[in-house]
Each structure stands twice: as structure tokens, then as C-alpha cells.
């Protein structure tokens, strides 16, 4: 049985990010119905940030590794 801990970690981080994304969308919709614009835009921005992290997480990881290797090598 081949167990890859890195793959499990990536999947778990993506799932947690997706749950946070859903929570932020619901909070933004509630703020929109109350016309609380500050909370609406902050929830919307945080939700978009979570969406970017979820979908582009592996690319961010590769970028961080490349920057780390450049700086510390």
C-alpha cells in the first residue's frame, strides 16, 4: 500500500480552504441582505482569497520552493 502524506496534506488543505470559502460566501450574502457593506466587501475579499489559495495552492507551493532555493542556496 502506497501512502503519500504530502498528497493527503494537499487534499486536506484544499478541503479546509473550500469550507472557509463557503462560509465566507454565506456571510457575504447575509451581510448583503442586511446592507452592511463593510462586512460584505470584507467577506467577499476573504472568500476570493480562499478561492485563489484553493485553486492555485500547488503553484504557490512551487513558487515558495523556488524562492526559498534561490534565497538560501
Automatic annotation (TrEMBL):
Transmembrane regions listed in the UniProt entry: 12-32, 38-57
Keywords: Membrane, Plasmid, Transmembrane, Transmembrane helix
UniProt protein name: Stage III sporulation protein AC
Lineage: Bacteria, Bacillati, Bacillota, Bacilli, Bacillales
Amino acid at each position: 500500500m502506497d501512502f503519500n502524506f504530502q498528497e493527503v496534506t494537499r487534499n486536506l488543505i484544499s478541503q479546509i480552504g473550500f469550507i472557509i470559502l463557503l462560509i465566507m460566501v454565506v456571510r457575504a450574502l447575509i451581510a448583503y441582505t442586511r446592507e452592511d457593506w463593510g462586512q460584505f466587501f470584507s467577506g467577499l475579499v476573504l472568500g476570493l482569497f480562499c478561492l485563489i489559495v484553493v485553486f492555485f495552492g500547488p503553484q504557490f507551493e512551487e513558487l515558495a520552493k523556488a524562492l526559498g532555493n534561490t534565497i538560501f542556496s
